[in-house]
Structures are given as C-alpha cells and as structure tokens.
Amino acid sequence: MAARIVLSLIWFCSLTHGLWAQTATKYLYQLKPGLIKEISLSGVKGKHIQIDAYFRLWQFETNSDIPEDQIIRNLRAHPHVQLAQKIRPVSRRRIPNDPLFGLQAFQQTISAPQAWNKGVGGLTVKGDTIVIAVVDDGMDTSHPDLLANTWYNFAEKPYNGIDDDNNGYIDDYRGWNGGDSNARTFTNQSLYAHGTEVAGIIGARGNNNIGVVGINWNIKIMPLVCYPENGVDGDLGVIRSMIYALKMKKAWLQGGGKKGALIVSMNTSVGISGLFPADEPIWCAMYDSLGHYGILSSLATDNSDDDVGVKGDIPSLCPSDYTIVTSCTDANDNRVPSGYSAIHVDMGAPGYKVYSTNLSSFGGANGPYSQESGTSFAAPQVGAAAAWLVSVAGDSFCNLLKTHPDSSARLLKNWLMKGVVKLPSLAGKCVSEGRLDLYKSWQAMDAWRVPEKKSNVYPNPISVGSWLHFAESISPKSRFELISTSGNTSFNGFSDHSGKIRIPEVAPAVYWIKVWHENTIIVKKICIVN
C-alpha cells in the first residue's frame, strides 16, 4: 500500500507539473545590445530561460492572471528590452490531399525541363556546395530519393555528446531541432511527412531512376525542425531554427568556406494566421538578419482565400527585402484559393496536386510518394529556384556570395521577380502579378552577368613556365584564374605589361582559364603539361 501511495504521489506531482507547463503563458524577449542578464518584471512572477546568448533572447513563462497584452506591453516598456512577443504554436501550410492527377505537372508549368539544359543544381561555378535550409517538421533522410541530397555537418561526429566543431550545438550532424533544442531532426512530428514532401520538391535526387525529381537534381537539404515533440511553442522553434541557419552561414563566410554551410535560401512553409508584425517582432526581425548573411527566405502564405494584409498572417507580413511570399496556382495557371495581397504577397507558384516524396514507410500505389496541395508546396519551388540560380550564376555572382552576401540575396529575389509569367488570375493578387518561371528567371540572371566570350589561345597544350598568347590583345595586368574541371580555382594571377600570361606552377591537367578583359570575360579550355 505504501508503495502505491508513493507512486500515486509521483503521478500526481507529474500531472500537476504537466498541467502547469501547459497552462503557463510563454513570452520571448530580446535584450538591448550589451545586456545579458534576464529582467525582473514588476508584479509578475515567472520563470526566465535563456534561449540564445548571441541574440540576447530570453523566454519568460508565467501563470499570472494579468492579461497577456498587458504583459506584452510591460515587457516592451522595460528599459532593458528591445523586442518582445508572445510564444505561439504554428501550423503547417497544407490543405487536404486530392486524388492523384499527373506526376509533377508543376515542373512543366515552371519551365524546369527547359532550365535544366543550363544546369541541374548542386555546386557553384567555384565548386562550393549549395545548401537550402528547410524549417519544418523534419525530413526522412532515409528516403531513397533524399538520401544522397541530405546535408551533413561533417565537422561534427554524430551522437558523441560533444560539440566537435565548437559552433555551440552538440551532435548537429544532420541539422538541428529548434523546437526541442537538440540534434533530432526526425521526431514524432516528422510523421506528418510535411517536411519530407517539401524536401522532395526542392531536391529529390535527379537522374537516378528512382521516383521523382526535385527542381535541383543535386543539392544539400538542411532539415531544421521547428515543432517540439509536444507540438506547442512552434514559433520559438522557428526562431531557434533560423538562428542555427544564420550561424552556420556566418561560419561559412568567416571561415573561408571551410566551416558551416553555404545556405543561400531557406524555406518556411509554416505560419500563424491572423497575426501582424507587431505580434511577432522577433520572428520578423530575423529575416533581415538572415538576409545580411545572404540567405533569401521563401515563405508560404496562408491557405485561406483572404487578403492577408487585412486578415493578418505571419510570416507573410514580415517586412523585409530578403523574403519572397508565395501563394498558390494550379498547373493550368488558375489561381487556387489562398492568401493574397497586392502589397505583401510577391508571386504565385503551382501548389495544387503537387507530386513529391513521402515517408519511406508510406504505402501508396507508387511507393513512398504522394500528391499534396497548398501554399506549403508552392513556396519550396521558389526557394529551390533561388538555390538553382546560384548554381548557374557566373563568377561575378560567386564573388558577391562571399564579399557582399546581402547583395547576392537581393539579386536572387530580383531575378525571381523579373522572371515571372504574368497571369490574369494573379492581377491585383500579388506584387508581381505573376507565377514563378525557372527559365525566365535564368534569363533575368543571364542578362545581369558580365558577358563571356571565347578567344583562341596558343600554344595549346602548353607547358608550365611558358607564355600563353591570345588571338586578340589582352589588357596589361588583366586578372585571370585557372579553374580545374571539378570547379575549384587552382591559381589567381595577372597578365604582364604586354598582356601575356605565364603558366604558373600547377599540376599537369586540363583547366579552364578565365581572363577579365575590359567589360568581358574571356574563357578558354587549355591543357597544361610538364
């Protein structure tokens, strides 16, 4: 009997603790620069938990009877607080399945096959691995169409309980779980398959004789889980996921490409309907921070057929030059009921009956694949298009990625917006009044690039230490690069005062030589021998 009483008391205490945690209201506040210690809120008792030291973020949890909006006002009025908001759950941007109708018709609609003639994604012309971050409920990394395109943090040894790369995150080998602040990127929340479906649209492996193909045949997808195991406080998970992506991109920039990850875009197909930027100021502020480091954020707007500028929607209404907000069309370019705004929604993309990957355990007629509808499956096409553009952009853009990352993100948005196909169904419903088109976006990018032309060179083959001559005169002191066939720069140098180039000490092999001459780039393949 005594043992039963003890167990009952333990059960009762666990139950009451759980009830307290569920009924407590949680807030997120950011301290002003230079401050690190949690605040004291007069007249309100609660618990403070540090969320992130770098961004000076603290969580405040209370059971106070004081109205929530009053606590928000008190937090924002505190002399040590810069921003504050309530922590709320987020929902997946998906509407129910419809019967199967065509396999990946969206790829034809956005001119992907035509664009693939220019490249299939994965690497920059410099040979850097392109990464897209996906803030969602995780990803089935064992899926046969996603396995090869999953991002791994090879600087981290998995599951040893040590922060091997000293980035502040333990065991982050396959991304990060912002919802629970741990390394598990496949949880009970992942069983909804939402993130796995999104990932397939972005980068299901192409040309592998398996299942479907993503917009990027080759790319690395970084799963970032925003939903905690208990399914609540999702907006905090979104913010922590964004912080992880930012820190990894910052590490890549500061480490010369040897640390972190070259994240060029981030997809967020989650949100909260009926809210405005004043309700989620920290969430919204993160997009400018991400953009500063060259990450363009693709956002799914609400699925309800309302003007989001009137009704409210986060993150659709977050004001930033580094976001693209997407609504929904079908394969025939009709507008599918979804959030709209001539000010806050940027473009449409096919999101009706989109065929993609599902969980490996999914028992559909065609295996682990299914058809989904909603803005959740339109937005990933835009984020994937941004990543694909990076793979086919020229040398000048690759330099911008490292020297002016914010400008690179603005350029990506500009090319995507210029590349839309104008649709009568989107007139007055979004900023561009058009639908994503991958090939036209490439044309917008190609018009920006520095012109490249061919020029005959001799001798070819040529030996190390010999002088390389061009059929046309080269400006004195012209910059040149030797690029290996794998895309890596092997040598940087300049021509002499007469415009000739002496072949440097490099390994005998076939190279591309690129010479910056006046307003053009001269490109030629040469064979260097001993």
CATH architecture descriptor text of the largest domain: 3-Layer(aba) Sandwich
Task: Output the radius of gyration.
Answer: 26 Å
CATH class of the largest domain: Alpha Beta
Q: What is the share of helical residues?
A: 25-40%
Total strands = 27
**How would you write the strand order of the largest sheet?**
7-8-6-9-11-13-14
Quote the CATH topology of the largest domain.
Answer: Rossmann fold
The total tally of domains equals 3
* Main beta sheet strand tally, sense and closure: 7 strands, parallel
Ends apart, CA distance between termini: 90 Å
Looking at this structure, what is the CATH superfamily of the largest domain?
Answer: Peptidase S8/S53 domain
Low-confidence stretches: 1-22, 94-102
What's the shape? Answer: globular
Structural class: alpha/beta
Write the layout of secondary structure elements.
Blueprint (H helix, E strand, L loop, with lengths): L1 H22 L1 E7 L15 E6 L4 E6 L5 H10 L3 E6 L4 E2 L12 H5 L2 H5 L13 E7 L39 E2 L16 H10 L16 E6 L8 H21 L7 E7 L1 E4 L7 H12 L3 E5 L7 H4 L1 E2 L8 E7 L17 E4 L3 E4 L11 E4 L6 H14 L2 H9 L1 H14 L2 E2 L11 E2 L2 H11 L3 E3 L2 E2 L3 E2 L3 E4 L8 E6 L4 E6 L6 E2 L6 E9 L2 E10 L1
Parallel strand pairs: 6-8, 6-9, 7-8, 9-11, 11-13, 13-14, 19-27, 21-27
Antiparallel strand pairs: 1-3, 1-4, 2-3, 5-10, 10-12, 15-16, 17-18, 20-22, 22-25, 23-24, 23-26, 26-27
